[in-house]
Amino acid sequence: MDYSITKFLWTLLGLFIVTNWGMLMSSTMRRIGARVSGRIGIPWYQPWVDLVKLYSLRTQLTHGTMFYIGPVFRLMGGVGMFLFLPMVFGNPIWSNYSFSGDLVLILYFQFFGMLGMALGAGEGGQPYSAIGISRGLSQFTTIEVPMTLAVISIAIQYHTLSISEIVAAQQGGITTWTLWTNPLATAAAMLSLLGAFGHSPFNLVKAPNEIPIGPPTEFHGTFLGVLRTNSAILHVAEAALFMNLFFGGATSWFELIIKTFLIYFWSVFVGTVFPRFRIEQSVRWFLKVPTIIGILAIIIFL
Length: 302
Description:
This protein is mainly α. The chain has one domain (about 5-300). Helix content is about 70%, strand content about 0%. It has helices at about 5-35, 45-55, 65-85, 100-120, 130-160, 165-170, 180, 185-195, 215-220, 220-245, 255-275, 280-300. Helix 1 packs parallel to helix 11 (about 255-275) and helix 5 (about 130-160) packs parallel to helix 12 (about 280-300).
């Protein structure tokens, strides 16, 4: 079989694994949050039930073409991150389509989905869409500032923008992880990750149980199913990106599952402990603490 076809099929298998792991991780975290609140929580298989139900529904509403392309843009952001992200270090099968300089492209994909949703919301006809767009883009832009500073710091440290080369530089044992060799960049990135995952205290954009509008109610049926699918892929892809940059990468799927679970659990733990910020509070916070740490991380390696 032609190599390109074989590579494509292995990549599809990897996407299938990541999607299902993302859904299982999501249901596990929701159960953990429920137990902390004194509840039982959802069954572990609930995300699959929800997807089957959503993909079987069709909407009778019409808001314009761009409104329904928004979830597709969102999904492409998560899938794009996965496609160019090496998942298992040292294994060409699971390196996906990574290449030299892929870190820059992945940072673009991280913001791509948010921009697509903003364009879709602008055509939705909802009078409060502009408020949601300004909230989402304002917060996500400030989230990107410390994350970008952290990436610049480790690019200076390792003299590369290749994720595979950054992982290779951390293969001398746990003490060679970026976590220990560049703790300031790791701290700035892990603080920005709290906002990227969208849990409390940085989830006012969709504000569960408080705002009766937004993607979960404006989009329904298959379109909401697409958003749920992206959520499963994106959370694993973002956790895998941070695993590669700061925690030595993974040499097997088992190691990847353990590390991505712990990275994702970091945001769930903080979200369970801290109350929700207002948008102006979260913007100020990201531009102060994580940004200052990120600047210091760059200065040290200049």
